[in-house]
């Protein structure tokens, strides 16, 4: 009986790394020397490739992992070669984007938080990333905002407002990480990356992510019937679940 062809597909923040942190060398070594002989490796993140490279120890991640999907797979790499890319600007149009961004900035100007910093809207190739506190905040301020947001639901309330304000724009709003949420056309969530894998002949695709509840940026792919979803709490939990699934004896 032939061995199953398995792919392990990972979210990054909270799954392979701590939020905006760099993957530990010990865990990276475990993935490459212990998991890769048993399974192909793939990474799907909402961030642009530059941020993925920073957190995964360098741009050579595209050669170490079989597949790397930046911005939910809108920018895709297979064995180090780019497969293609899609642009939200071309898809939605500049007029719609500006109308939306202008409203976001006006909305943010009306809310008061314990602190506000800079870079409230980050334009990416495939999405907008919106941060009420601003992406230039420190790690300590990130942690404090996450606690504040859990109590006061700043991001969730803002998303509900945007849905009411722009009912005719087919956007998906997805909370991920500590301080922001992503906005992108419907269908451009992490399931987008699966189109690059459908003809690759995998018997099983296992997805690992931490934001798997509804509204989280791992939710759509976690419940997708083409994958086997695994909810994780942190990189240590990811390692533990990999050992169980792939029958790896813990050392």
UniProtKB/TrEMBL annotation:
Note the superkingdom of the native organism. Eukaryota
The UniProt keyword set, sorted, is: Cytoplasm, Isomerase, Magnesium, Metal-binding
Q: Which reaction does this enzyme catalyse, per its entry?
A: alpha-D-mannose 1-phosphate = D-mannose 6-phosphate
Where found, per UniProt?
A: Cytoplasm
What is the uppermost EC class here? isomerase
Query: InterPro entries annotated for this entry?
Result: HAD-like_sf, HAD-SF_hydro_IIB, HAD_sf, PMM, PMM_cap
Asked if the record carries the keyword Magnesium, the reply is: yes
Q: What is its EC number?
A: 5.4.2.8
Q: Which family does it belong to?
A: Belongs to the eukaryotic PMM family.
**Function (record text):** Involved in the synthesis of the GDP-mannose and dolichol-phosphate-mannose required for a number of critical mannosyl transfer reactions.
Q: What is this protein called?
A: Phosphomannomutase
- Species, as recorded: Molorchus minor
